[in-house]
Structures are given as C-alpha cells and as structure tokens.
Specification:
Layout (H helix, E strand, L loop, with lengths): L2 H21 L8 H16 L6 H8 L14 H13 L8 H13 L3 H17 L7 H20 L12 H6 L4 H4 L17 H6 L4 H22 L11 E5 L5 H14 L8 E4 L1 H4 L6 H13 L3 E5 L10 H16 L5 E6 L1 H9 L2 H6 L3 E4 L4 H14 L3 E2 L1 H16 L8 H20 L6 H5 E2 L9
Parallel strand pairs: 1-4, 1-5, 2-3, 3-4, 6-7
Length: 462
C-alpha cells in the first residue's frame, strides 16, 4: 500500500480546495460535501477505465474530503462492486449542481472561479490515476472527458477565461513550494509545473474541431501521466505518438499538426518541435535507389520534430516500387529514431484506412486515427469573419447576410472534395480583391469605407 503517497494526495486535495474556498467571495455557494462526493465519483470512473487495485482505490476514496465531517470510510466489497458497475455500464458524469451555481456566479460578475475549480479537479484526477502501476490510455481519455464537460459548460454560459494570477490552480494543488523536493513520494510536477503546454491555447482558439481538441488533450494527459511514472521509477507504458489525420481538404490538418509539434516539444516528447511538410513528390525520386536517399534527407530535416505527409495514400499503389521504397525507408527511421521523430500521415478517410491496412509495418505504428469533420456553415462563417477581423475588414449588414447564405448553400451541396477552410480563404481573397478594385475608382475615401466590405464586393457569390 502506498501510504505516504495516499496521504500526500489527501494533503494536496485538502490544501487546494481549502485555498479555493477561502478565496471564493460567496461562501453560501460552496457545498464542500457535494464537491467531495463529485470528486470521489469521478475518481472511480477513472480507475474503472484501467486496472486499479480496489484496496488502493478504497484507501484513496477515504482520504478525499475537505472537512473532517465529510469523511467517509469505504468497505472493500462496496468499492469493488462500484468499480465493476462503472466498468460494465456506460455511465457519464453530469455537471454537478454546485458547479452550475459557480458558473452562474461567474457569468454575472465576469469572474472565472469555476474555471479555476475545473483545473484543480483535472490536476487531482491525474494524481488519482497514478496510484495504479498499470496505466492505460483510457484513463487519460476519461480525465479529458470529465474536464471538457466542465469547461464546455463554462464556455456555453459565457464564463471569461481565467486571468487572475492570484488564483493559480497549480500552486493550490502543490500545497506550498518545495513539497516535491522534500518528499520523494509526493506528486511530481509535469511539463512546466503540471500546466498544460502553452501551445494548447492555440489549439483551443481554433474554430470548431471539438473532436480533434478532445483527442489531443487525451494524448497530453497521457503524456503527463507517463512523465509522472518515469520520474517515480515506474514502468512506462509503451505507446505510439504517431497519428493518422483523416478528413477532407481544408479541415485544419496541417495547422493542427504544426500545433501538435509544439505541444510534443513542451511535453518533452520532441527536442525541437518543428514541422516538416511533404507529399509523395517530396519523398519519391525518379530512379530506384534514389528514393531512399531523398526520403532519408527529409527524415534528417524532420529529426526532433514532426514529419507531416499529406495524401500519404499516394505512396501505396500497385506496382509503385518508388512509393514502397519510401515507405520502407520511413518505417526503418521510425524504429531507429522513435525517441525523437514523430510522423503524422493525412488524407481522405477511406483511402487512408486502406493505406494503413496495406502494410503490417504501417498498421503497427499508426493505431490512432483523428477524424477532422467538415466545418459547419456557422464555423465557415466564423473562420471568414476571423479573417476579416485579423485583416481589419468589416462586413456591412447586407454583405454579412450574403456570406452566411453562401456558406449554407455550399455546405449543403458539398462533395468529398469540398475545400472547407481553403474555400473560405479563396472567397476572402477574391472579396478583398474586388473591394480594392472598387475603391481604386474613388478619388477620396474615409478610413471606414476602406475597411468596409459591401454586397457589391461579393457579387461573385450570387
């Protein structure tokens, strides 16, 4: 039994929640017993995704309390049955009532206490997950799902981003500086003192891609947990960080790959964190033997970062000896440099699945698929207005109506080759060109007129 570690978990939890409750202005909204019950329930849902020892789970559950009066002592049989129930039933945690009240408070006062509490929960959930020596990816995914449900509720109710440096969830959970160094059994800090990689903010700011964001956050949580295990001298579960991005053109695959490279660097998975982007022409040469050299040169440039191969399925076709030579060279490099080279392959869903299935080496190394959905009409419009704002253009009311209707129509008529974000950019570039041609005919124009897009500039959409 990890007695010292479990005691430290309790100290971290009590310190974090105690600090939060002291800082929160309206004490009448804080129900510590409900918070404790929610956290216990979440902890069980996480352990059920792995293979945790029921006795250790029982010991931890008994230490999850903020006030002595909230403490509960659990029977081993009760815990075992609860774990089994969670394993065999598709249970989902709802947003608890105490959190709903905090969100309402924040929304009215433009504060972010609910976000602070959600981050405290996430950090504690990560610490709960590592009581078991057999860590599984599903546990990280469950932590992500729990955290995302709370933050989504914050987002949908207009809670502002966390900005206060005084309320730092990480220092709250740590319970004071230096604790980690004094106690070798204490929870360690991961990748920048337990914080999410800064580059995750870039991912969160992208329009849409909710499924993609959830998948990447699961990978981040898993990497954090593996870092804890490594620093504690525990076995690290071998996992492939290579990815398959599937989806139609213009859905943000290259943009996300570039962000993932930076995230992996911040997590210590890569030494440089840059992105090298190629397609078949960047790997294949015109003569047998030259392809291996050309592919190796690309691999050398990619070391320490991510090699992103777009339309990778083009490498695998019948009688394509050059493409096969590139694949063979790539697979060898992925094995030889698995500690500092990550490969992401991308393309249409059906073609990519056929590509991966065509080669046992590919199938064993690429086992995580992330699906990029087509942008909805509203998301296409949001991307378009984001380009306008970034480049200091404003849409007139008539122009705005026309653009919205255009994206609705093209979305409904879309095919597999629909351009998504690329179509938005093409539309934007043509629009500002038309506006420039129109303004060039004016002898004088105000700053507002130079910045305004009118219906006439979008005549090509009609």
């Amino acid at each position: 039994m990890k007695t010292d570690y479990i005691k430290t978990l309790h100290d971290n939890y009590q310190s974090a929640l105690g600090s939060f409750m002291r800082e929160f202005p309206d004490k009448s909204l804080i129900d510590s017993a409900s918070i404790d019950a929610f956290v216990r329930s979440c902890a069980v849902s996480i352990w059920a995704k792995g293979d945790a020892d029921p006795e250790e789970c029982r010991a931890v559950l008994s230490e999850i309390y903020t006030l002595a009066g909230n403490r509960r002592y659990y029977d081993l049989t009760e815990v075992s049955k609860t774990l089994e129930f969670y394993k065999t039933h598709n249970t989902e945690q709802s947003v608890p009532e105490f959190f709903v009240k905090l969100v309402r408070y924040d929304a009215l006062r433009m504060t972010s206490f609910s976000r602070v509490l959600a981050e405290i929960f996430e950090l504690m959930f990560i610490r709960f997950a590592v009581i078991d020596d057999r860590m599984e990816y599903a546990e990280a995914s469950q932590i992500t799902a729990l955290y995302e449900k709370l933050t989504y509720f914050c987002n949908s109710n207009g809670v502002v981003p966390r900005q206060s440096k005084e309320l730092d969830p990480y220092s709250m959970v740590e319970g004071g500086a230096g604790a980690e160094e004094q106690d070798p059994n204490a929870p360690v800090r991961i990748g920048g003192e337990g914080r999410d990689p800064e580059s995750m903010k870039e991912l969160d700011e992208l329009v849409g891609l909710e499924n993609v964001k959830t998948e990447i956050r699961s990978i981040v949580n898993f990497a954090k947990i593996q870092a804890i295990r490594k620093r504690r001298g525990l076995k690290v579960f071998p996992i492939s960080y290579h990815l398959v991005f599937i989806g139609n053109p213009g859905t943000g695959k290259t943009t996300v790959a570039r962000i993932v490279a930076k995230v992996y660097k911040e997590l210590g998975l890569l030494s440089k964190g840059h992105l090298t982007e190629v397609d078949r022409s960047g790997l294949v040469a015109g003569y047998v033997g030259q392809t291996a050299i050309k592919t190796q040169e690309v691999i050398s440039r990619s070391m320490g970062g991510i090699l992103f191969i777009d339309e990778a399925y083009m490498l695998s076709s019948e009688r394509d000896v050059f493409g096969q030579e590139a694949i063979d060279t790539l697979l060898k490099a992925m094995e030889d440099h698995r500690d500092d080279l990550i490969v992401i392959v991308a393309g249409y869903e059906s073609l990519m699945k056929t590509f991966i299935e065509s080669n046992p080496g590919l199938k064993s190394r690429f086992n995580r698929f992330i699906h990029f959905e087509d942008y909805t009409p509203q998301e296409l419009f949001d991307i378009f207005t984001g380009l306008c704002k970034k480049n200091q253009y404003t849409l007139s009311e008539d122009a705005e109506v026309l653009v919205k209707e255009y994206f609705r129509q093209v979305y409904e008529a879309r095919t597999e080759s629909f351009g998504n974000g690329r179509a938005v950019r093409n539309c934007f570039e043509k629009m500002i060109t038309n506006q420039a041609n129109r303004m060039a005919q004016c002898e004088e124009a105000s700053l507002e007129e130079i910045q305004t897009i009118v219906k006439e500039d979008l005549a090509f959409l009609a």
